[in-house]
Design a protein that fits this description.
It contains 16 helices and 12 strands. It is of the alpha/beta class. A 6-stranded mixed β-sheet has the order 3-4-5-2-1-6, covered by helices on one side. The protein has a 6-stranded mixed β-sheet with strand order 8-9-7-10-11-12, with helices on both faces. β3 and β4 form a beta hairpin. The structure holds ligand FFO, guanosine-5'-triphosphate and magnesium ion. Ligand FFO binds next to loops. It holds the Pfam family TrmE_N. Belongs to the TRAFAC class TrmE-Era-EngA-EngB-Septin-like GTPase superfamily. TrmE GTPase family.
């Protein structure tokens, strides 16, 4: 599972640029290396100040060394941390020294004194933590999500998932499914009893309760996935309606060029903003119109590509020009093209700009805003959040991935099928058992914990059917 010919290979990385940088090693039998680099043995888990020695005995740096003997470490293996000054050169020297020391051989026997040491692959420390049961899969993924978090809310929810908030919910659900499966599997051994027995044992209420709990976890996982991945919003509309002005107003910075010349924006300008901690990837586009200018035509083609990719489209209109026939024709052409795309009515948000200079439209037609004065922007932010499906206050949310949402959806589908097989019309006990097994498998994919042995263990421990 470690993808290595030699399972005791140790891995190393050098991280950090700034005040402090760490060379971190994980593997087995690190003691000879500690002796070589630190010139002494280290008390377990105690930070010790001293020189990091080069091969000739000179000091590469003075720093803190910590040895975490297995299994009480991040990876569950023996870990050595050399906490040095955070300059790239000093860290590279230290890393090279570790690799060289590990390549060193016993003079008398010619055998290496250390396990092979190589540079770690990305994520390999956390992968080893997972393989050694220090973290489950959802927690290991949360480590990556914490590091990549683009907003404070995303970071906090990743920390919650890393601490096990998501895994705990999944495991509670799994325990319910295991209980149910035990009952159903036991019933299968008594053909006379069938579903009536399960009914009397309360299995069907338990199934419904598990389904309800799953729906709540799914709703929270969806919120978590939104915090992680955010939503792509495209600002589209005719030239000069104020798309670039709106991007700048939402971002609070002069990102895109604004002029009164129609056709100012030639290429996409993208920025990630956050609304209540939800990352919103906003793309400003070239104004949509018929054009004979080569460059502008390419820009407009890119606008349409952005529209295709978007989760939501802000179709921006200009209140000051609503009455003009040319303008109305331009908007109608865009609306027609939007209607050709995939499920677009649901993705399009009509927004009317320049409310500072012309009367607003009635709210049924869309939001009236002013990119210039800021009027209506709070409502627009709320409307975007609503489009994204954001409901929760971020406090309770744990980070999640599309993979988790899909696994939960498949679990839900199998539970629904199980309920169908349990129902009066169907009463197919074997199929009910099979759907519960599939639900259990799908759920187990989230934490990576599922294996058939787990379930068999529980069944054999919980029941003594005498077979
Ligand atoms: N210096 C340093 N800081 C770091 C890390 C690291 O590896 N090194 N981490 C890297 O991501 C994170 C902290 N994660 C860690 C998780 C577990 C253990 C650990 O020693 N676990 C042992 C003992 C637990 C205990 O005594 O409470 C264990 O699980 O047995 C260490 C760091 C962030 N900060
Ligand atoms: N009165 C008023 N003028 C605005 C508002 N928003 C933008 N404008 C003006 O409208 C003109 C066009 O603004 P832009 O933001 O460049 O418009 P655009 O939609 O990006 O235009 P293209 O890039 O050409 O497609 C500029 O003169 C802006 O100052 C607004 O809310 N009120
Ligand atoms: Mg523009």
């Amino acid at each position: 599972m470690l993808h290595d010919e030699d399972p005791i290979v140790a891995i190393a990385t050098a991280n950090g640029r700034g005040a402090i940088g760490i060379v971190r090693l994980s593997g087995d039998r690190l003691e000879p290396l500690i002796q070589a680099i630190c010139g002494r043995t280290l008390e377990p888990r105690r930070a010790t100040h001293g020189p990091f020695l080069d091969a000739d005995g000179s000091a590469i740096d003075q720093g803190l060394a910590i040895h975490f003997p297995a299994p009480h470490s991040y990876t569950g293996e023996s870990v050595l941390e050399l906490q040095a000054h955070g300059g790239p050169v000093v860290l590279q020297l230290l890393l090279a020294r570790c690799l060289a020391a590990a390549a060193d051989v016993e003079p008398t026997t010619g055998k290496p004194r250390l396990p092979r040491l190589r540079i770690a692959r990305p994520g390999e420390f956390t992968e080893r933590a997972f393989l050694n049961d220090k973290l489950d899969l959802a927690q290991a993924e949360a480590v990556g999500d914490l590091i990549d978090a683009s907003t404070e809310a995303a970071a906090r929810s990743a920390t919650r998932a890393l601490a096990g908030a998501f895994s705990d919910e999944v495991n509670a659900l799994r325990d319910r499914l295991v209980d149910l499966r035990m009952l159903v599997e036991a019933t299968l051994d008594f053909p006379d009893e069938e579903i009536d027995f399960l009914e009397r044992a309360g299995a069907l209420q338990r199934l419904a309760a598990a389904r309800g709990q799953l729906a709540r976890v799914l709703a929270r996982a969806r919120q978590g996935a939104l915090l992680r991945d955010g939503m792509r919003v495209v600002l589209a509309g005719q030239p000069n309606v104020g798309k670039s002005s709106l991007l700048n107003a939402l971002a609070g910075a002069e990102l895109a060029i604004v002029t009164d010349v129609p056709g100012t924006t030639r290429d996409k300008v993208a920025e990630t903003i956050q609304i209540e901690g939800v990352p919103i990837h906003v793309v400003d586009t070239a104004g949509l119109r018929e054009s004979s200018d080569t460059v502008e035509r390419i820009g407009i083609a890119r606008s349409w590509e952005a529209v295709e990719d978007a989760d939501a489209i802000v179709f921006l209109h200009d209140l000051t020009r609503l009455g003009h026939a040319d303008y109305a024709a331009g908007d109608a052409a865009i609306a027609a093209r939007l209607a050709e795309g995939r499920a677009d009515a649901a993705r399009v948000l009509h927004v009317f700009n320049k409310a500072d200079a012309a009367p607003a439209v009635e709210t049924a037609r869309g939001l009236s805003i002013s990119a210039a004065s800021g009027e209506g922007l709070a409502e627009l932010r709320q409307a975007l959040l609503e489009r994204a499906g954001w409901q929760a206050a971020p406090e309770g949310v744990f980070i999640a991935r599309a993979r988790h949402v899909h696994a939960l959806q498949r679990t839900a589908a199998h539970l629904d099928a199980a309920a169908q097989h349990a129902s009066a019309g169907d009463r197919a006990l074997e199929l009910l058992a099979e759907e519960l097994r599939l639900a259990h498998d799908a759920l187990g994919e989230i934490t990576g914990a599922f294996s058939a042995d787990d379930l068999l263990g529980v069944i054999f421990a919980g029941f003594c059917i005498g077979k």
